[in-house]
Description:
The protein is α/β, with parallel strands linked by helices and 428 residues long. The protein is built from 14 helices and twelve strands.
Amino acid sequence: MTAQPFNAFTMARSQFDKIAESLGLDQATKDLLRNPLREYHFSLPVRMDDGSFKVFQGYRVQHNDARGPAKGGIRFHPQETADTVRALAMWMTWKCAVAKLPLGGGKGGVICEPHNLSMTEQQNICRAYVRQIARNIGPVSDVPAPDVMTNGQHMLWMVDEYEQMNGGRFPGAITGKPVGMGGSQGRTEATGFGVVFALREALKELDIRPQDTVASVQGFGNVAQYAIELYQQIGGTVVAVSCWDQKAQQPYTFRKKSGIDIAELRGITDRFGGIDQQKAVGLGYECLPGEAWIEQDVDILMPCALENAITADTVLKIGKRVRIIAEGANGPTTPDADHVLQERKIFVIPDFLANAGGVTCSYLEQVQSNMNYFWEKDEVLGKLDVMMTSAFVSVSDMARRQKLYMRDAAYTIAIARVAQACKDRGWV
Ligand code: GLU
């Protein structure tokens, strides 16, 4: 029997409750942090290409802003719900805290299927979204960014709408803008590269050389592609990637035992990370239906897609050789699967630590935008590496010292920082 997908917010709360208990937080702090501070639900009337109007549902959740303005992406996804956005906003709070950024956590979403929308329709959704939420976001309150199925172009439409409404230029209102339009060098690469900065540190700690490792990756979107690129640069070999097949409405795994060629695969991939099956087979890839990425004989797994990837069912398929799981996605592992990983002593780099590179670079973009200044790519990526490495080291030090599971160590640091900020402000 296949397990029901976990409700992401239930999962985020249960992860929080466990650590809140061990930290001995008082009831008011727990009540404050297990709920969003504010959330907005709104209707987006959008003109479609055929002249008709269609109303989409939008959300923006500001989970906590005690440490600074709320920060987090906006996802376009047909299965978006208020609860997924709440969970993702909460995870952003912990992510910014563990990375020591002076930011809080927020997230947005629109229920829509971009595969079936023209660019004009997507632009109209972006602008409608900002028209509804402009009063409640901005450089000093809540700063959106790209996420699943949104990119720099969407962010540019959004910042433009925000600026039209507010009569000025406010590049710090949104991050992930295109380079040359207030965006930061390195932002596109940042999340995937950050996963590998953390992975590199984990390998050092386990005394494993990257060139002796083989990995399998779930997803082939922005996070996965740049994670693979940097992992290969440090010497690793990726033997399998999976992606969602929009036509078949199911995932496929593409395998090449000698190692995939990232440039070659990118050349046959659409803008949503969908790999063309026929062309891949033509290039010598085995095409395996389903989630075969998880059962490969590898040292490292990188889930870089969505929630509910490693579940009570799929965790049993993880091979004996797997030593490290680097969670590029948000919330890929359900709590029941997490117990199994912990028992098996797999070194997990938890999501809100592993994928903190995106928001860390967004923070660097905010700094540049607010100063109307820009840094060269090496400078940005250098700062990103230092910040990611330091976040990783503080978590792994605590895990070692207190004999904690990596996820619990990351939660302990993040929740303690946010709880302290709430206390210092006199909120609780
Ligand atoms: N959407 C990314 C995340 O989940 C980045 C958020 C941001 O840059 O604000 O971390």
